[in-house]
Write a structure and sequence with these properties.
There is one protein chain. With about 375 residues, the protein is of the alpha/beta class. The chain has helices at about 20-30, 55-65, 70-75, 115-120, 170-175, 245-250, 260-265, 295-300, 310-325, 330-350; strands at about 15, 35-40, 50-55, 75-80, 80-85, 90-95, 110, 130, 135-140, 145-150, 155, 160, 180-195, 205-210, 215-220, 225-235, 275-280, 290-295. It has two domains: about 10-80 and about 110-180 and about 280-369, FAD/NAD(P)-binding domain; about 180-280, 2-Layer Sandwich (D-Amino Acid Oxidase, Chain A, domain 2). The chain has ten helices and 18 strands. The strands form four sheets. Strands 6-5-14-15-16-13-17 form a seven-stranded mixed β-sheet, with no helix packed on it. The protein is globular and about 60 Å long. It binds flavin-adenine dinucleotide. Flavin-adenine dinucleotide binds near residues 53 and 310.
C-alpha cells in the first residue's frame, strides 16, 4: 500500500474540472486543512451568464467554510418564488423550503453563476489552480491514480476528484460509461436589464416562472447588477450547439402573454445562449478506491428544481467532511456515497418534472423530507 501510513491531511488530492463543483471542492477541503490542486482544461475560469438560487443547505456550507460574507456581497436574499400562468395569474406563491434544522434558514440567495464561481476561486490559493490542463487519461492503480494531460504533463494522486461535468471523461474511463440523455427541450438564456423585463420581473428578489402548458419562461432578478436572468424553456430539436433564429424563438412562445412575447422579441439574439437540456440516468458507481465523482459528473440533472449547482456544492462539503473524519480514503468515499446518493437521485428524478400550469407546488421535494 503505497500511501498506507499517510495522514489524510498529507494525502495528495487533485480535482479535475474548475467549474462550480471543482472550485467548491477545493474551498471545502481547504477549510479542513487539506490541499487540493485544481486542473481545468480551459485557459480561463468562467461561467455562462445565468442566475442561480443558492439554497439553505448550500448556504450552511458557505458559512462553515468562512466564505458566506463574500457570497452575501454578490447575492440577494429571496424569500419566495412564484409560478404564474399567462402574464399575471399567480398559481403558486411559495416560501423557499427550509429542509435544514435551522428555521432561520428559510431563504435562498439569488446570484449570477459567474459571481458565485469568482467568489469560490478567490478563496483558492493561486498556486493550486492549473489552467490549460486537459485530462486525456486516468490510470487507476488501486491505491493511487496517474493522471495524464494533453500538454504532456503526468501527475500522481492519492485521490482524484472528478468534477469534470456531465460528459465526465474520468467516469467514462474508470467507472461506467454514461451518455447525456436529451429531455426534448431547449433552454434559451439571456441576461437583460431590469427595465427590459417590462415589469415581468422587478428588483424584489422573487424568482418568477411563467408557464404555458409545460413550456416556461423564468425571470430571476440579480439585484446588485440591476439585471434579470431570463430562461425560455420550450421543445426543440437536439443539437450540441443549436442555432435558433428570432423567428423560431418567437414561434415557440405564442402561448404566452403579450408582455413576455415583447420581452423575448426585444432580446438581442447575439446575447442569447441556447442549450439542449440533458441529464444522466442514475450512475451506479461513483468511486474506486482513489477516484470519485462529484457534481454533474455523478448526477447531472435538468434545471427544473434549480439544484444542479447546489448539489455539486453540497457534494463538496460532504466529501471534505468525510475525508477529514475517516482513516482511509476508501472509507471516506464509501461514507460520501452513502450520504449523497439518496438526495441527488431524488433531485435527479424530481428535476424531470417541468413546471406546468397545473402546478400545485414549486417544491415537490417537500413531500420527501
Ligand atoms: C444556465 C444554467 C442555469 C442553471 N441554474 C441553476 C440553478 O438555478 N441552481 C442550480 O443549483 N443549478 C443550476 N444550474 C446547474 C449547475 O450550474 C450545474 O449543475 C453545475 O454548474 C455543475 O457543476 P460541475 O462543476 O459539476 O460541472 P461543470 O460546470 O460542467 O464543470 C465541469 C468543468 O470540468 C472541465 N473539464 C471537462 N473535461 C475536462 C478535462 N478533460 N480536463 C480538464 N477539465 C475538464 C470543464 O471545462 C468545466 O470547467 C444551471 C446550469 C445552467 C447552464
Amino acid at each position: 500500500m503505497r500511501f498506507k501510513n499517510k495522514k489524510m491531511t498529507d494525502s495528495k488530492v487533485v480535482i479535475i474540472g474548475g467549474g462550480i463543483g471543482g472550485a467548491a471542492a477545493a474551498v471545502a477541503l481547504k477549510a479542513k486543512g487539506i490541499r487540493a490542486d485544481v486542473y481545468e482544461q480551459a485557459p480561463v475560469l468562467k461561467e455562462v451568464g445565468a442566475g442561480i438560487g443558492v439554497r439553505p443547505p448550500t448556504v450552511n456550507f458557505f458559512k462553515k467554510w468562512g466564505i458566506y460574507e463574500d457570497i452575501e456581497k454578490v447575492s440577494a436574499r429571496s424569500e419566495h418564488m412564484e409560478i404564474i400562468a399567462g402574464d399575471d395569474q399567480v398559481l403558486v406563491k411559495e416560501a423557499w423550503p427550509v429542509l435544514t434544522e435551522n428555521k432561520s434558514d428559510a431563504y435562498a440567495r439569488l446570484i449570477h453563476r459567474a459571481d458565485l464561481l469568482d467568489t469560490l476561486i478567490a478563496h483558492i490559493p493561486e498556486d493550486q489552480l492549473h489552467l490549460n490542463h486537459r485530462l486525456t487519461e486516468v490510470i487507476d492503480h488501486g491505491v493511487y491514480a496517474e493522471v495524464k494531460f494533453a500538454n504532456g504533463k503526468t501527475i500522481e494522486a492519492d485521490l482524484v476528484i472528478a468534477a469534470d461535468g456531465i460528459r465526465s471523461p474520468i467516469r467514462n474511463q474508470v467507472l461506467n460509461r454514461h451518455e447525456p440523455v436529451y429531455s426534448g427541450y431547449l433552454a434559451h438564456r439571456a441576461l437583460i436589464s431590469t427595465r427590459a423585463a417590462l415589469g415581468m420581473a422587478s428588483q424584489d428578489n422573487v424568482l418568477r416562472i411563467y408557464v404555458d402548458g409545460d413550456n416556461s419562461v423564468y425571470f430571476m432578478p440579480l439585484e446588485g447588477r440591476d439585471q434579470v436572468s431570463v430562461d425560455v424553456t420550450v421543445p426543440g430539436k437536439f443539437a450540441r450547439r443549436p442555432e435558433v433564429t428570432k423567428k423560431e424563438l418567437m414561434e415557440s412562445i405564442t402561448g404566452f402573454g403579450p408582455n413576455i412575447q415583447k420581452v423575448v422579441e426585444n432580446m438581442d439574439m447575439k446575447q442569447v445562449v441556447t442549450r439542449p437540456l440533458c441529464d444522466l440516468e442514475h450512475v451506479e458507481e461513483w468511486s474506486t478506491k482513489c477516484v470519485t465523482l462529484i457534481g454533474d459528473a455523478a448526477h447531472a440533472m435538468l434545471h427544473n428544481q434549480g439544484q444542479g449547482a447546489n448539489m455539486a456544492i453540497q457534494d463538496s462539503g460532504e466529501l471534505a467532511e468525510t475525508i477529514a473524519e475517516s482513516v482511509t480514503i476508501e472509507e471516506a468515499l464509501q461514507k460520501y456515497e452513502e450520504k449523497r446518493k439518496p438526495i441527488t437521485r431524488l433531485y435527479q428524478d424530481l428535476s424531470r418534472l417541468f413546471p406546468t400550469d397545473k402546478a400545485e407546488t414549486a417544491f415537490p421535494e417537500k413531500a420527501h423530507f
